[in-house]
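Progress note, project year one: complex with NAP.
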Amino acid sequence: MKAFVAGATGQTGRRIVQELVARKIPVRALVRDIPKARNILPAEVELVQGDVLDRQNLTAALGDATVVLCATGAKPSFDPTGPYKIDYEGTKNLVDAAKAKGIEHFVLVSSLAVSKFFHPLNLFWLILFWKKQAEEYLQKSGLTYTIVRPGGLRNEDNSNPIVMQSADTLFEGSIPRQKVAQVCVEALFEPAARNKIVEIIAKPDATAKSFAQLFASVA
Ligand SMILES: NC(=O)c1ccc[n+]([C@@H]2O[C@H](COP(=O)([O-])OP(=O)(O)OC[C@H]3O[C@@H](n4cnc5c(N)ncnc54)[C@H](OP(=O)(O)O)[C@@H]3O)[C@@H](O)[C@H]2O)c1
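Model obtained:
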């Protein structure tokens, strides 16, 4: 297995890279700025300069990767096209490139509440709406996928057990980015994670379960 990580310099993406490296999985990281990435990512990670909006170069950027993990996301800005471009077009471009390369598994970091059009987060240029469109494009692509929808992301890890549920059943809660990264990487190894949407938060009063149990509990 060789993993291609898009959004690798991001707060969640860098933790996905760390989890992959800890599991000795070779990583090829798509980054927009190589010097910045060198400061953030472990030295053994292969860096490829690129942009998910640069459709033409994505197939070559995938190189010899066999699985893809995507943790890109538009940053809040005054550009009303940001979420449409990054969270929809960019992911769509990556799905197309993954399909062209015969990628074995595509893990997408999405968000809780993507199906709620009237959610306040959609005030940020319809970000949830565009993430949902990207999810649907991936689901229809024929690629093996896992769509991970986390609650509010936290930089500090904690020991709260993970709660994992099926699509459109969790509407609030938060989760450390490290746990999101673990779920994304475990999805590559758990047969029960294939072709599923999983919603995740972490809660102190939840019952601790193995990743196999968590994925198996989701329809
Ligand atoms: N914040 C929350 O509470 C929350 C909750 C649920 C879901 N989410 C979603 O979870 C995901 C990860 O969030 P995060 O806060 O960890 O992300 P983040 O730190 O904002 O990182 C986003 C990454 O996307 C990359 N990126 C942006 N545009 C790109 C482009 N055109 N081509 C290639 N890469 C591009 C950025 O690259 P640069 O480093 O070069 O800028 C960065 O690496 C996002 O999709 C976010 O919407 C967030």
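Residues 6-7, 9-13, 32-33, 51-53, 71-73, 75, 86, 90, 109, 111, 150, 152-153, 177 surround NAP (CB under 6 Å).
The longest helix spans residues 82-101.
No further modelling is planned for this target in the current period.
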